[in-house]
Amino acid sequence: MHIPKPYNLQTKFIFGLIVAALLLGSIFSAGSYFHMRSVLEEEVHDRANLIFAHLDSVQQYVRQILRPAMYEHFPDAFLIQAMSSSYISRKVMSSVSTPKIGSIFRRVALDARNPEYEANDLERQLITFFRENEDHQLWHGYQDLGGDRHYVMARPVRFEQQCMYCHGKPEDAPADLLQRYGDRGFGKELGAIAGLDFVATSVQKSVGRLRQTILTYFAFFAFGVLLFFFASNVLFRLLVVNNLKRLTSVFQRNATDIESAQLLSQLEQGDEIDELVDGIEQMGEHLFEARRQLQNYAENLRLMVDERTDALSDEMEARRADVHLFVRLLEDMYQSRSRSELWQHALPQICRRFGAERIAYICTMASQGSYSWPETHSPLPQPEQFVEIVTGGVCVARGPAVYVPVESGTGNAEGLLCLSWKTPEEAARHDLSVLQALGRQLGIAAENLTALDSLARQMNILETIVEGITDPLMLMDTGCTSLTVNRAAKKLTAELTDGERTDGNILSLFFPAETEKCPMKDAIARGEPDLREVSLPCGRTFSLSLYPVRSSSEEADQAVVYLREITKELRMQQQMMQTEKMATVGKLTAGIAHEINNPLGVIRCYTGLLRQTVSDRQQLTDLAIIERHTQQAQRVLQDLLNFARPKAAGSGTADACLVAGSVSEVFSVQAAKKGVQLEVTCADTPLIVRLGVGALEQVISNLIINAIDAVDEEVGKLAIFVDKGSKTMIAITVADNGPGIATDDAPHLFDPFFSTKDIGAGTGLGLTICYGIVSDVGGRIEIGRSAALGGAQFTVLIPSADPSV
């Protein structure tokens, strides 16, 4: 029966949190109160000091400026409103002593001339204090004045030499002063303390605000404590109580007898920690009992160890022989070329190791696949339940014979190994687990031989595939030595050398091996593929691909060389390029023929007519100048037409910056006519690419034409950037502020005859030709949206031909 607990760990934890929160709250409130009280005292202390400083300023002004000025103008008169420092100080400081400000200022004295400023009891006590304590120049503290708590500051007033004229002997005092106050206030001694300056500041309201602030802070603190209690309670239950209950449940599950049940009932009277501690104590008692039993066992352990040592020695010798057998079997596996050789080598050694009379192996992978040793004996009969033993994976002893299943590494049954002794006792002495491990080792060896045979067949298939490739293919090392070549490579080598060479080293036909600029060495060094076009003097052009091959150490030390003849493809490409260029020139000339040709013809015609009618030499000179400039304009138009004429084909090299600048100048006329801004930005140094000038002009021309057609008139912008795209690539970027490329059109931009222009406005072959030109030299074209202009952006990446890259 479960007995309810009078208290638990969580209750103690919550109670401890409450005590800690109250203690912290009290300390926090007290600390805040005393801190804010000290701040309040500093504030009223500074206010009183400010009043004293104001008072000193007034008195100093009266004594040093106002009083001397009055004596100068009225030497025989004493005007109290302008010459008495005490009178003026009281009048000026009267604005401080108001209930609104909460401050009191009094300048009082003993036997004062004006009875209103006679010192009261508190002020007399302070004057007495200063007389008794000459070294004290200031007194401050709290006093109750008029029912309110005030912070009081007072300082003594000593009679100096200037004061003795009005407070010394009556006969020396001004007549106006005697007439006004009589003989009161005289008889003071020089340096005596007979008065004081008194300042009091009310702190009642400030203390109330201080208490209100402390209560507000305490309320927020209490609210935070409640939230903290709730979160702590939940976390403590999840992280502590529940885990402790899991630990105590271990003891509960093991309490099966009556004594343990009674002990568990006693443990449940405490909290979770008590349960855990008591449970650990009980565990300690059990461990102590177990230790005592172990000590009893240790007394007989020596005899058991000796016996076991002898047995282990025998077993160690057997295992040593087993290891020696496994090593020899491994050697036989490497020397064997087939399963038959493996069994012929392995069976005699196994039979000798285990001292068997006969041994045989029955293979399940092939019909009539059985081997035995010695061969003079008759074969061992197959056991009953042969299939169950082979597929069971466990050695079986039947009388004087032991049957060992031979399995591959994947668990497939390979066959059955049979060992026979003269008597069943001899068979029983051997460890079946060792024999079973031997069977698995033999199965793995047989499986490896099968894999090697399969690998040899795969190599034959791979060789057949390589030889079946009609294009030349070869594998070369860093020394430009041919490791593997196919028949097509040998045939091409013989064809290009008129039968002098048949080694298939096609790379040496284009690049001498001893040159430092061998592309294969460069590709292996960089670890990146190299795709280029190569040509022979006979006019044949090939696409050469070099693919570095990495070894097991992740270093490229070989390269696959692939060659494909593209002579016919280049010719067709040149024709397409020429067609597209002519279409481009047609667009240009169509736009400017009417604007230039007709006016130029009219100008030349009228120039000739005028020459026939003019006889003045100066006029004839002017007409000659007009005709010369007209001819120059016609030559510019002729240059545009010459741009469309075919240029020398081939890969070659070109300065990307120079070609981009020249092409942009050609199209600047068409851009200006449409009101399009055309800007070209190039690097300071030449950027040489692996592409001929004509092909590069064709690529940039098509991109510029498409950009001019895409932007709007008068607001269009076109930018061309030429820079290094990477270590091995030169980037030519053409960007505009047009509508950009639609998502559906992007996959088809490089398809032949695909165009987004109006019917008749384009052939649809421009980007197709550009893609083919760039791809053939190992480059690529990337499309996207320009971040600067917002329209379409085409980036042409062409391999660099600069040897320093």
TrEMBL record:
Domain Histidine kinase: 591-802
Segments traversing the membrane: 13-34, 214-236
The reaction(s) this protein catalyses: ATP + protein L-histidine = ADP + protein N-phospho-L-histidine
The protein's Enzyme Commission number: 2.7.13.3
Pfam families in the record: HATPase_c, HisKA, Tll0287-like
Coiled-coil regions listed in the entry: 280-307
Keyword annotations of the record: ATP-binding, Coiled coil, Kinase, Membrane, Nucleotide-binding, Phosphoprotein, Transferase, Transmembrane, Transmembrane helix, Two-component regulatory system
GO molecular function list: ATP binding; phosphorelay sensor kinase activity
Protein's name according to its UniProt entry: histidine kinase
Naturally occurring in which organism (per UniProt): Desulfofustis glycolicus DSM 9705
